[in-house]
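haha ok so turns out i had the wrong file open the whole time. this is the CORRECT one, sorry everyone. sequence first:
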Amino acid sequence: MFKKLIENIINFLFPYQCLRCGKILNSAGYLCDQCIEEISFIKPPYCYKCGHPLQEENIHEKMLCAGCLKNKRTFYRLSRSAVIYDNSSKNLILAFKFFDQTENANLLAAMLKIAGKDIFSEGADLIVPVPLHYTRLIKRKYNQSALLAQKLSEMTAIPHNNLTLIRSRKTKPQVEVSGKERLTNVKNAFKVKNQKLIKGKRIILLDDIMTTGSTVKECALVLKKAGAKSVDILTIARTV
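then structure:
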């Protein structure tokens, strides 16, 4: 009874709040019902290869979008994202990424676990986050993708490695350059330190937001060249 009393006092003094809007929740949770309704979760139908939402109804579950039908040679196996990057999801992700709200990590990792079900069913051996350059890591204090990789690893029992894939060249933030410049901005910016940890492994490459996909595609190419059996891409959000 004493333990329950302490829990009630703690819940009264520090009530559960919605991570997106700050509303007090009646029970343990991450988001209020309204925010759950407003966030644009990516649900079927979507392209089986790249995960882009499709508008067709009653389609085959492994249907490809026009882009993937045209370009079948890619350095990744599957790509999945949990939500569409728009005004409904932006604040939740940016607060985690730039404003030290690391308490959002558990929610975002849970969203990744749901979004990655197709990837997990195909098989995965190692979770690898997109790395930050050490200068940016010092400034930001943490790599949001590495923190997500750790949380997702705990939820799925798939090991993670934050040190093998590194950003060997400092680049401009992708938001500061245009679509075509993004490709050259990250070209040859990554390398694998210990190929033995990658060779023959089915890798989940994890990042927060995918816009043009230039960063994750460059990382996937590097991992494949290092001997990875396959590379799947998993992000919290993507633009559509």
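The mean pLDDT is 87.
again sry for the mixup
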